[in-house]
């Protein structure tokens, strides 16, 4: 019995004991490119990545979808990498690569055996300096993006719910359109517009280069200078600063989705930037409400009352504003308004009562786990280093962000819910099956 107790106690030790501090070095090249290096020689693998500070919010409202389009277009080829050869080069050298776009940034990366580090640096410098942006590439990727939209949005059940929420939640800020954008806008765009977008945003002074893994720092710095140092600096990139008026009265909307049979209800609240302490507290609110089968919403509405077969709450953190969403898919004859009432009751409890000590302990364990897992491999570390530098302005959050979660009190969790999650401050969307004609 004594051995069992000792073993159990060992499992409950703070997970942070297992987390190693992520060491890194950062500096700027003369052309404004920010460089971050993280050395980890435990495995012969290296990640080369570039994050550009351009996303859907930087687009012309009449040309939405450009940032996501460039996620695809910049794989087309360069002056020294033939059309369609990018992926062939990566895979033939034992590597993998990918890219992704949000409203705030675009991220490209390769993972190679460490003896191909120079290849990864050369390829990313080619993408930055010598991209070939011609009509053939634009036409090719236009079809690729259209097919992606058909698969992931147009023909996907509930695929448009976030886009429809954004339209209602934001009236001025560019977060109001979907990251994938409008196919009509892309069709209408000229080649010159694509070339101008590239010249404006995909420049060294609007990017961060992260190299993480099995590397020699001195040799890596020399290679980076050789491949990136001569790339011309671009013009200063203007940053948008658009403020939304507060929502003071509930806004209601309806959307009909031809791909669903079960209706849904979504409530969305506009919340502060990911950089604020309040955004962290809202993450914790969502964890209490809907993270796992022991969460409040799941236990009440799925397990006990059997009013929903799916229910949840989550905080979408972004650079300028966030979105806090609650949603439910009713079970049986449950009415949408009854589902909303039940969800609201649980939100009110968060606003008026302190969460239990046990819930608070579970919160801390969850975020400790996330912290450890995010820093468990060089691919994740590279992404985190780039994101913390570019969107938060503090690279060392990779090591001390967990301290923010640790310091947030039960009282703060209650107060942030009380401040932002009120019916008169939200959008409510009924997401319904398409009506029969």
TrEMBL record:
Protein family per UniProt: Belongs to the peptidase M16 family.
Keyword set includes Chaperone = no
Keyword annotations of the record: Hydrolase, Metalloprotease, Protease, Signal, Zinc
Q: Which InterPro entries match?
A: Metalloenz_LuxS/M16, Pept_M16_N, Peptidase_M16, Peptidase_M16_C
Signal peptide residue numbers: 1-19
Peptidase M16 C-terminal domain: residues covered = 189-366
Domain Peptidase M16 N-terminal: residue ranges: 35-148
This chain's protein is named M16 family metallopeptidase
Any single Pfam family the record assigns to this protein: Peptidase_M16_C
